[in-house]
Amino acid sequence: MLLGSVEAGGTKFVCAVGNEDYRIMEKTQFPTTDPATTIQKTIEFFQKFDDLAALSVASFGPIELKKNNPNYGYITDTPKSQWSHTDLIGPLKKALNVPVYFTTDVNGSAFGEYVTAQLFNEKISSLVYYTVGTGVGGGAVLNGKILQGFGHPEMGHTFVKRHPDDLDFAGICPFHKDCLEGLVSGPTFDARLGIAGKDVPHEHHVWDIMAYYVAQAAIQQTMILRPDNIVFGGGVISEDFLAKVRVHFKQLLNDYVTVPDLDKYITMPRVKENGSATLGNFALAYKVQSE
Amino acid sequence: MLLGSVEAGGTKFVCAVGNEDYRIMEKTQFPTTDPATTIQKTIEFFQKFDDLAALSVASFGPIELKKNNPNYGYITDTPKSQWSHTDLIGPLKKALNVPVYFTTDVNGSAFGEYVTAQLFNEKISSLVYYTVGTGVGGGAVLNGKILQGFGHPEMGHTFVKRHPDDLDFAGICPFHKDCLEGLVSGPTFDARLGIAGKDVPHEHHVWDIMAYYVAQAAIQQTMILRPDNIVFGGGVISEDFLAKVRVHFKQLLNDYVTVPDLDKYITMPRVKENGSATLGNFALAYKVQSE
């Protein structure tokens, strides 16, 4: 049996086919251009595999996930040019004629991390995955199920208290200015310092300011979901940076509630090279074909 | 069949017995003194009812809810004098010999609100309940289940961005200073203004400042859990106050995600006179006796 994974990102699409052991058999990627071309390329990749059993798509958003909504399977009101109100799942289902699971990019990653934790016999029953990159997003798996309510979470858009050395920065979120995304997404380096994040030395104080905010995101999850693990991925995150996050987290939490050992609680992704979503998609495709 | 409810508060215990329709048959309350006396009074109230089928206890905390923990059923490291590391559930189970459900006070209220919504045929599958009173706490019900992770939520202890007219107030949380509880719990009126909340006129600007913070709590829930309804109870809350909260919420959200109509999304408790927890307890006691 073959399982398909689509990571539908705003910049690129990554398509992969794997087996029941979630091992990648073939993989391709191409830039996200207009919807028709991009979806057609996706279809052509998967059409090569006769025994594709199911597909899972982890997409940039916002997306419609309520199955009783006529726009189920759509990317909805995204600011991304041409993609607003695009039916992503309909054409894939029609052309490939297999069951298709649909979720957000970060939900796919969260599920991949959760499944990997289970494979490694870790005692993880709930897990949050944040990406801190061009934007900030988060998804959660609670007792094996992806967290989903009135819509999908948008965990990057909560507010935090300001670092005393960062009071003058307005924040760059077009909707909320100084929400988490507006304070710690990758482009904030350029907005604060006039240089790209990759060129900011590790000892620069801005890293400490950003760690203070990311630690508050971890506090929010700790107080609301009480997960067993909070995973941070994305271009801004490194082991070095998470070490700073843990220091702030410990100070902010002030031993108010019990949490797992911080080195195991606030972590980099288990799956390397941004592979969490692909693995999550394989597991979700497996689930959807067995339902 | 009779069902028992204990609301174990830091100030008073409220004990009630109800029928399968969750109607209160008899109710009593007494001050929370030392554990032995208070627990004994609780036992004596319920011993009067021969056909008590089960009991549910919604307690102040922190409490231990993990059933495989040797301290399950305990109030753990509370600052409340004499109550630290008190076995609350053990003595009740032993004396009354019925199944006992144990949860937090706000979880009990959240469950009561959820059950009431179902009885009224509201389309509510997830709901958050905050109490804003002496302290701030929150619980959630997701698809009929109380949210519980590595421990129970402590939703009152997340951080928020400061109102520009409130930058000099340090906050009063003994653990976190300016977390939500440290900025909006009842005693903050006295800390900010030197007068009790009940004596602060409705037109005072401090209400607007507090509404700004409570709105951010609602934003956190909206971005993380995406619930169908956020209920606010407790001494600080009034319809007048929630009207202010909705105004700030709308501005802060800035239409970023879809939410239900705000008058139905951010609401006072359905069950009047602080009765949510009693009703929730009856429903939880019913559940635990049928398991």
UniProtKB/TrEMBL annotation, chains A, B:
**Family, as annotated:** Belongs to the ROK (NagC/XylR) family.
Q: Does the keyword Zinc apply?
A: yes
InterPro entries in the record = ATPase_NBD, Carb_Metab_Reg_Kinase/Isom, ROK, ROK_cs, ScrK
**Enzyme Commission identifier(s):** 2.7.1.4
Q: What is this protein called?
A: fructokinase
Q: Which reaction does it catalyse?
A: D-fructose + ATP = D-fructose 6-phosphate + ADP + H(+)
Its taxonomic path starts at: Bacteria, Bacillati, Bacillota, Bacilli, Lactobacillales
Q: Which UniProt keywords apply?
A: Magnesium, Metal-binding, Zinc
Q: Which cofactor(s) does the record list?
A: Mg(2+)
Q: PROSITE patterns recorded for this chain?
A: ROK
